[in-house]
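Narrative of accomplishments. A recurring question from our advisory board has been how the design workflow behaves on a single, concrete structure rather than in aggregate. To address it, we present the structure tokens for one chain from the evaluation set, followed by the sequence designed for it. No filtering or post-editing was applied between the two.
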């Protein structure tokens, strides 16, 4: 979908719940609740080599899938805050507890502040969508966590070094082969080697993308602490 047609779709659908179609609301209370589950670990089965621990707050399917796709593919920007809030909740179990500073204060960046690194869209996909969907969720999740006293910062460190095909329709082995060696730390970015890194994405399926992202960061000497997504595919969720 082009940027223009996604803008038209936004106009057509913005008065309906992205999850269930209820009228006059961007996200109804019931669908909002679907993003508010307790964080759970959701390792892919089998995990690809180098797969970091991964947490989610929802199963990917039904209304949750509709919400994620409406945000990413139809430019429903009003869904960014609830999705970022869900992502922040999937991150929280992987942060030091208790929070370093009182809620509402500024999170300290000293001594192990978590760096959130968002998984990038393939370049042409990002251009088609007209926005960096996961990057925005990472940025807003860092802001939410900082406001609640955690020390977190978002960085766009990763980019693609070569062409990769659409992952849809590929199995676990095909996805891993498609992505092998495809990500790199972007030129000119100074990797924060003194701080733990946590990868963030919208959905985990086979784990191939998160494993490749972790490999690219570790190749630059970064310490990958874990990863977090909004939703996990049911066949791998535990
Ligand atoms: Zn709804």
């Amino acid at each position: 979908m082009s940027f223009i047609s996604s803008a038209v779709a936004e106009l057509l659908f913005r008065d309906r719940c992205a999850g269930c179609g209820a009228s006059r609301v961007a996200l109804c209370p019931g669908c909002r609740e679907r993003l508010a589950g307790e964080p759970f670990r959701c390792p892919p089965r089998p995990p690809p080599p180098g797969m970091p621990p991964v947490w989610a707050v929802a199963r990917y399917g039904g209304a949750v899938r509709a919400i994620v796709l409406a945000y990413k593919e139809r430019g429903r920007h009003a869904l960014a805050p609830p999705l970022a809030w869900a992502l922040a909740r999937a991150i929280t179990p992987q942060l030091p507890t208790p929070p370093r500073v009182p809620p509402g204060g500024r999170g300290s960046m000293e001594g192990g502040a978590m760096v959130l690194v968002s998984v990038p869209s393939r370049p042409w996909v990002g251009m088609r969508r007209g926005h960096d969907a996961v990057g925005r969720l990472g940025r807003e999740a860092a802001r939410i966590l900082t406001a609640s006293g955690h020390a977190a910062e978002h960085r766009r460190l990763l980019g693609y070094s070569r062409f990769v095909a659409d992952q849809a329709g590929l199995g676990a082995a095909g996805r891993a082969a498609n992505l092998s060696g495809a990500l790199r730390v972007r030129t000119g970015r100074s990797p924060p080697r003194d701080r733990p890194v946590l990868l963030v994405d919208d959905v985990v399926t086979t784990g191939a993308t998160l494993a490749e992202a972790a490999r690219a960061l570790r190749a630059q000497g970064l310490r990958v602490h874990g990863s977090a997504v909004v939703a996990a595919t049911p066949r791998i969720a535990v």
